[in-house]
Structures are given as C-alpha cells and as structure tokens.
## 1
Amino acid sequence: MGNYAINLKDVSVSFNGVSILEDITFSLKKNIFLGVIGPNGGGKTTLLKVILGLIQPDKGTVEVFGKSPVESRKLIGYVPQYRSFDSGFPISVFDTVLMGRYGGVFGNYSGKDRETVADILETVGMSEFKDRRVGDLSGGQIQRVFVARALVREPMMLLLDEPTTGIDLKMHESFYELLSELKKKMTILLVTHDIGVVSVYVDDVACLNKRLVYHESKEATLKDIGELYGCPIELIGHGAIPHRVLGRHKRD
C-alpha cells in the first residue's frame, strides 16, 4: 500500500451537467491529519463520497490504500455531516456503538465485538455513559458516540464531515484533542469551516472550491483562505454557514 492513504488523479464529478469537482489531483500520506476547507457548494462532501466509493467520478482514478475505494471501504470510518435519529428511541450508547461492528441481519455479535466496543468507548471518553440512552446525551457526547461507532470498525482512516456542527463551542477543544490522539494511529481527513481548527490542530490543509489546492504545511495556506471564501480571513466565522461577515467585503 506504500506510504499513501489516498491517491486521486484528474478526478472530476458533475451532477445534471453542473460541475462539482474539477481535475482533482492529490495524494495524502498515512497518519496525516488533513483539514479540508472551502465554501458551501465547493464539493467537500462529494470528495468524501468519492473516497468512500459512494460516488463514481466522471473521469480520473481513485485509490485508497492502494486499492479501489469499494475494496478499501472496510478500512475507513465515516462520520457524515447530518446524523438524524429519533432522540426518543430507547437505545443505549453501548448498543449504538456495537451496531458499527454489524454482526449481520440477526445481530450475531461476538465477545470480541463487545470487547472492542468497550475499548473504543474508553478511547473516546464515554465509558461511564455506556448504559445511558443516546437521546439523553449532550450534543458533544452524541458526537463522540458517532465517532466511536466509526472507530469500532478499527479503521486505518477516519473521514469526518463538519463534526462539530451543532456542538457547544466549549466542547470543541476536547473533541479536537481526541482527534489529535487518534491521528497517532490513523489517517484523518476532516471537512470543516472552523479556521481555528486549521490553525491549531491539523497537520496539512487542502482548500477546495471545485478545484483543490493541497498544502503540506498549514502555515502556507492560511493566507489563501481569504481568497477562497471571498473575504479576509479574520471575518470567517465558526458555525454551519461558510462564513459570517463581521465587516464589509472589499468588493462592497
């Protein structure tokens, strides 16, 4: 598999004649924490789905750990942007994470499966909540449960699509400290609008707005982010929207 987790070459994707990704070429080394940043509609979620093999590109090649995305999917843990669930559904934290092992239609989970769940809950700091109903947790705790469900597959790479959306800012630091620990064991690709994360936690940064520019140094790319969003970097806010303008754009 070499030293690379992801290799994309000349990848383009369009839907109904509208270009989403254009000529994406980049390689991501193993055990790198990569932040992917860009405006809404820039193709970030589509890129993740290409890596997962859920979307086939119109052209170009995609390799994940030296194989096709479909062949390598079992090596990937994925936490999507929108995770809707019935907060009233009576399922525990432990059973939610156990579902990540998927023991088949009849839920034939082994002792090894349950041991792995216990270990992962310890890793993400949720062991004491294992019997708690998921709907009774805070937003930050729920996010840790979904990360645990992705990790329980024992992946070599973790993909996260704006994982702190809807989480209290006070929980951000502990969540990203968790990711910083996890990167010691796996590759992490994080889609985010949070410039603070880019400046503090990630190793490398990719700017994506249909086309991708990948910098193997986060310092080298921070000066380009303002151009990507169309406003000075200090005006880019946290949250679900691409940026919040606290002043006027130059073009105004």
## 2
Amino acid sequence: MTFDHITPIYDRLARAIFGKAIFRSQIVHFNRIKSDARILIPGGGTGWILHHLPPDCKEVVYVDSSLNMIEKARKLNVQFPVSYYHACIENTNLNGKFEIVIANFFFDLFTEEEVERIVRIVDSNLTSSGILLVSDFRNTGIWWQRILLAIMYLFFRIVAGMPAKRLADWKNILIKNGFISISETTYCHDFIVSEIFCKSNFNS
C-alpha cells in the first residue's frame, strides 16, 4: 500500500470532500501535548500537522509507507528533531517509549486483524502516562455516510492498493486492548471523530 501517486493532491482532495473540518479534527486535541514530549506519528501523510506541534518537542518519529509523503514532509521547516522512516509501523525499530502517539486517519486503512496488530504495537510503545490521539471516520448508520465510505474505500483500493474493504471497528479494538476514551469531539454530523485515549493503568 502506498499513496505515492496521489501525494500532490492528497490534502486538496480531503479539503474538497470534507472542508476544513478534516484538518481541524486532526489538531483539536494538540493542547494536551506537553512540551518536551517524544511523539510517534504513524501514517504521517504530508506532515502538515508538524507545524501545529509544540516547538520544544523532544523528538518526533514520523513513519509512512509513502516515500513521496516523506519527501514532502521533509521540506517543512520545524524547530524540533524529526526522524523519518519510510516503512510500515510493524517493521520500524521505534527505539523507546513515547508520551504521545498521533494516529490521524490511520486505522481506517487496515483490516480488523491488522488494526489489532497495530494497536498492540502502539500499546507497547506508549508510556503508562502517555496518550493516544485518534482522528478518524466512524460508522454512524447514516445512509449518505455509508455510500461515501464505500466510494472512498473503492477509490483508495484502486489508487493506493489499500487492503481494507470496509471501516474497521478501531475504537472497540482499542477498548479490548485496554485503552480508555477520555475525550471526544465530532465533525461532519458525527462522521469524523477525534478522541483522546489513555491506558487503563494511566498515571497522570
């Protein structure tokens, strides 16, 4: 799976369909990111969210399977160190724990089984007091949202080789693996949700 072919239009395509809401959803909880945090961003995309992180981050580890996305992100001027990995998160040596993991429209790319594996990786690489920030689509049962999801999955299977054919129940998978949702903000008639998750043994 790679988004190399649509890197130049990826953000514009998202804006055309969802307007500014899809971008606001990805940074709405960034006020919870403490200074000097070590941050993991799997599926970093074009990297535009880097400009919205605290300037005194300790380190950002950016992982993406698209080389074109990485090259676009590298061109951004940020004040903190960023380690770029052209890889899948399952094949990346993350070298330590993180206080923050940001998964923006990432879980929706994978099948239920793949999300299970990724969630376990996130769990093992997040500190006990760390938080997971998730922005993604969710199934609401609203007819036009079901149609739009079907169209999006067909499109990305064709252009990016995305393995998933439907939206995984990523929130339930997180909960089954010991995560707790502590805050939620929704957009686009609840079609997009931004949530803060912590571990069940969260130590603030």
## 3
Amino acid sequence: MLVRELYPHSSNKSLHSLHLLLLVVFSLTYLVGCTTSGNSSLYGTALNDHDGSRFSLLDENAVEVTDQTYMGQVHLITFLFTNCTSLCPLVTASIKQSLERSEDTRNTPVLIISVDPKGDTIESRKAFKNRWGLSSNWRYLNGNKEELNTIWKSFYLNPQEAAIESLNSQMNRKYDIIHSSPVYIVDDEGRPAVVHTNPIDPDHLHEDLIRISKR
C-alpha cells in the first residue's frame, strides 16, 4: 500500500492521486515477479529467489551496517522516514507489537532503511528511536541517494519527493515523501523470504517470524 504524506490543502491533489496510482501499479508489477504461488503456511507473501541487495550504510550512531552484518540471523527490513506522520508510525507500532509477542522474537534485529536521505539526519534518527522507545536491536540506516536508490529498486520501492504547498506544513518542511513501507522477513542466509504489506498485522508478522526462524 502506498500512502501520501501530504497536507489536504494542496492544489495538486488530483495529480498526486494519479501519481500514487501509478506507483501502486509499479510496485505490484515488480512484486508479482518474485512471489511464489499459494504458500498457505505463511500469512505474508512468500518470495521466490529474491536476493535482497548489497549495501553498506551508517546507522544513527554512525556505525556501519552491511547486508552481511546479520548473516546467520533472521531479521526484518522496512523503509521509513523520520518526519512521516501517518504510515511510518503505524508500521513502527506494528513491528514493535509483533516482536513483543514472545521472548523468541523480542530481540529480532530490525533494519529501518531511510526513504528520505536528506531529512533523516543522525539527530532525527536518534530522536525517532527515542520517541518510540526502540531498543538497540533496531538500527536506522541512511546513506547517499545513489546507493539508496539501488537498495530501493531491489526491494521494489520508488520513493518520490512531493512539494508541500500548505502554509501550515509541519516544521516548515518544503516536501514530503510518497512511499510504501513493506516489511521484509530476511532469513538466516540473507534472503528476503516473506513480505508483509500494509496494514501490517502484528500477530501474523510474529507467526511468520517464528516459521522462518524454524526453517
């Protein structure tokens, strides 16, 4: 699901709605190519031969995290930005609730990859984690737009910057991000095994985490 982080006073509402529809079609077209058919043991969409993406990014403490950092551990990857006010809080809350369902999942690593490299500063990422009470197993990653573009493409995202025209825009921001926030479960071999899309059900995400961990 794609959500538009725009205020209702925008004069380009129809144009942005069309833009969102095109982004939905783009994302679904790519996802169909990497899904398996009818895996009834999983609540999310099982993925077939998804290789993920090579990356080397810095977390909110300027510590390097790569695609190999959590090799051997089942972990989650999702895509957010710190100034998001609708979709990102919902996804964050759902993941947090999911992990808290049991001791087996409580410390599952979660990699948040930025869709707003310009706005997701070290300070704003630290503030985001503090605001949500996220523990050290959550890492909020950012990098330059060129390297992030490669990662977004591998995970079938196409974040778009959209101007805010309202005079009452949050914190005087001039733009917001049109994006999707899928949650990928990555297996212990580093391959995305399942994807959950919005609305994220914490119970279903938890059950799939357990299933993938036991494979």
